[in-house]
Structures are given as C-alpha cells and as structure tokens.
C-alpha cells in the first residue's frame, strides 16, 4: 500500500506545480488585459478631450482674428497700411480670445487660455509658422491646454493601476485674414478689372494703366459690364451713369464668377466716368475694389472671363479727350468688409479663416 501511495503522490505532484504556473499566467494575463483596457479607455477619453480642446482653440483663434479685423475696419486705408498694434489692442484681442475659449469645455472643464499662449502676427503658408509682430498683423494663434499650466491635466480611470494618474493634452489653431473671397452687392466700385498676369510682373505700390490697354504688362486691365449683355460702350455708359446716380449697384461675385469684358474703343464713356470720379474722389484719389480676372497675358480680353480674386486700386487720374487715360496705384494691406478665403492680391476679407 505504501508503495502505491508513494507512486500516486509522485504522479500528482506535477499537477500541483501546474496549478501554480496557471495562477501566475492568469495573473500576468489579467494585468496585461487590464493595462490594455486602461489604455483603450483612457486614450479614448484623452482623444475626445483633445477634440474638444481643438474646438476651443479654433473658436478662440477665429474670434481673436475677427476682433483684429474690426480694428482694421475702424481705420482709413492709410491707417490700415501703417497699422502698429498697441498694447490696448493686443489686450482687447486677448480678452476676446479668452472669452471665446471659456465658452467651450474639454472633459467637463471650461477652457482658460494663458496670455502667453496667444500670439498675434503674420502667417507664412509655406513654412506654416506664425511670426509675432505688431506691424500690420493679420493672424492669431491660440494654444488650448489641459495640463499643469492651464485647466489641469486630464485624470485617468483604469490607468491608475499602472501608475498613470493623469495625461496632458494640448491643441493649437491659427486663423488669418485671407484674401477677399467674395463681394456683396455694390462692393465692386467701377466696371474695370485687372489681369492676373499683371500681378506676375507687378503688385502693391505699382502703377497700373487701366486705360488704354496697349498690351504692355503695366496696362494689363480692361473694362467690363459686370454680368450685363451686350457688353458694349452703351451698356457701360448706363452702368457708370447708374453708379453716379446711385440707381445701380454691381452684383455680388466670387472667384469663378464670369464677367463680361469689352475689347474695343470705349472713349465715349469718359464723360460719364469723369462725373463718377469727381463725385467719389477725395483730394484726387479714389480707392476702388476691382476684380482680378484670369489671363496669361495682357491682350485685351473679350467676352465672359472668370474672376480669380480681388484687388484695391487708388485711381489718381482720369483724363478725357484727347488723352483718354486712367491711372491708378495698387494698394496693399487693405482690409475690406468682405469674406475671406480667396487668393491674395493685397486686399483681405474681414471674415477670418483657419489656416492651422
């Protein structure tokens, strides 16, 4: 009997050892599964909070840039072109940023923005970097945080069992006053346009000869009748007369919208144009917003041509017979009361867009 018991015990001993090994494996597996569950739950929670932070940063950057646009709108063109942001303006923009962010929450916490996390300056689309400056700024960058410096880190749930009690989350957004991307009714001041080819050769501060178009790069311009047909001198005279009397306004437009351009002698419209110029000029200067039409050269266009964007020109001279000439200077850093999102030809909309 004893021999039998000894033999039985020796057979059962490995089973006892297996039970111990299984217990260890179960413990290890449970730890791994718990860690995976913790990672899934807490990473998911952090990602949701990150999206909420991004919403707060986006809203704050857009609000701050819109506040910057309002400042520009209160300035005359000369003031816009030489604007230097004061400490008071900077504080006002920061206050708008912080108010917009606080209206948003991330993981249940209303978001406060550190003053140091608000940058106002110029955005470089090539490098995707904002350079802080007080000289003619057009962009606002905001960093929203849930970390030790603002709003507190996000607490974890299951990750605590592996020693991780909180995570830091941040989000950044930049909004910019971009090129005018649309015009409302009446915003185009005069039935003239500039070729995109002009801006390949010249630009801000350069003279443009609206008329006559002699085929040279500095005369890459043309008459148009907005959307009206037939596109001829008689239609053009009626438009200019209506602009002078206040009985006509240009239609709303956007890039891609086609205008009717005139290729020919329209000297007969100059008496009407001189009347309009005299009614609108101030000290000999008349600032006008004009469409930039798509063209690869300076040949006078004819017929329907799509708009590429918008520019501001300061008409300085309108000469009638026998010279028949219109001269202007392209203006830069003009913030106009129109939507943004278009290509830049020196005129920017007051409705900002996100660029980061």
Q: Would you kindly provide a written description of the structure presented here, covering whatever features stand out?
A:
By secondary structure, the chain is of the alpha+beta class. It is 35% helix and 28% strand. It is built from 6 helices and 18 strands. It has helices at residues 2-73, 77-81, 87-102, 196-201, 233-245, 270-280; strands spanning 105-106, 109-110, 118-124, 129-132, 139-146, 154-155, 166-167, 169-176, 192-195, 207-211, 221-224, 258-262, 286-293, 303-319, 325-331, 334-339, 347-351, 353-354. It has a 5-stranded antiparallel β-sheet, with helices on one face. Strands 9-11-12-14-13 form a 5-stranded mixed β-barrel. Strands 1-2 form a two-stranded antiparallel ribbon. The model has no long low-confidence stretch (mean pLDDT 89).
Distance, first to last CA: 85 Å
Low-confidence stretches: none
- The largest beta-sheet arranges its strands as 4-3-5-8-18
Share in β-strands: 25-35%
Output the helix-strand order.
HHHEEEEEEEEEHEEHEHEEEEEE
Report the strand count.
Answer: 18
Structural class call reads alpha+beta
> Residue share in helices?
25-40%
* Average pLDDT, all residues: 89
How many DSSP H or I helices? 6
What overall form do the CA principal axes indicate?
elongated
Please give the largest β-sheet: 5 strands, antiparallel
Rg over C-alpha atoms, rounded to the nearest angstrom: 33 Å
